[in-house]
């Protein structure tokens, strides 16, 4: 396989991973914001406390989505290690997410439904970048080499298969 073809295949795999991460992430954001707003409207919890609870619920939701959808082909050995790392990196993401909300609410005095949701969403966005990097790097390890070759074979078009077959023929 040429370097350009290998790069193209890797980019397609990364694109699919990002798309799947995004689907789970968007659903998790929905869970996070719905729980946050329900807690703010139905309880007398302070803003950041309601946000921490909502973040925790969405972390549990996201783990299931990532494990069984986004990274279903990743290594399955060491489930305890995987969960421990997921919780560790999720906690750092929660600190980032809720730190943004805390600074806006208590540091700058921007406390109201619109401001709370804006800064909650901003915090989620910043934390998502960290979470994507840490989950794919440390928690859900990449596929073994043989599985990558199988995934590449699935992604190749018929023309690419033919070109690969012609390149390997000996004349």
From TrEMBL:
- Write out the entry's keywords from A to Z: Membrane, Transmembrane, Transmembrane helix
Record's family? Belongs to the GtrA family.
**Which positions carry the signal peptide feature in this UniProt record?**
none
A Pfam family annotated for this chain is: GtrA_DPMS_TM
Q: Where are the transmembrane segments?
A: 21-39, 51-71, 83-108, 114-133
Question: What is the name of the protein in this document?
Answer: GtrA family protein
- Species, as recorded: Streptantibioticus parmotrematis
Q: Which PANTHER family match?
A: PROPHAGE BACTOPRENOL-LINKED GLUCOSE TRANSLOCASE HOMOLOG
Q: Which InterPro entries match?
A: GtrA_CellWall_Glycosyl, GtrA_DPMS_TM
Keyword Nucleotide-binding part of the UniProt annotation? no
Instruction: Spell out the subcellular localization from the entry.
Output: Membrane
Q: Where is the GtrA/DPMS transmembrane domain?
A: 20-140
């Amino acid at each position: 396989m040429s370097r350009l073809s290998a790069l193209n295949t890797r980019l397609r795999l990364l694109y699919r991973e990002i798309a799947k991460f995004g689907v789970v992430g968007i659903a998790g954001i929905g869970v996070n914001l719905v729980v946050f707003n329900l807690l703010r409207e139905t309880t007398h919890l302070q803003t950041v406390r309601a946000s921490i609870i909502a973040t925790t619920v969405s972390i549990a939701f996201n783990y299931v989505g990532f494990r069984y959808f986004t990274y279903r082909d990743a290594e399955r050995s060491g489930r305890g290690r995987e969960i421990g790392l997921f919780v560790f990196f999720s906690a750092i993401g929660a600190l980032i997410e809720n730190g943004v909300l805390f600074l806006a609410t208590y540091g700058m005095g921007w406390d109201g439904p619109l401001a709370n949701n804006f800064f909650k969403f901003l915090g989620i966005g910043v934390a998502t970048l960290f979470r994507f990097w840490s989950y794919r790097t440390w928690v859900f390890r990449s596929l073994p080499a043989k599985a990558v070759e199988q995934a590449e074979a699935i992604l190749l078009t018929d023309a690419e298969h033919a070109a690969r077959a012609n390149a390997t023929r000996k004349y």
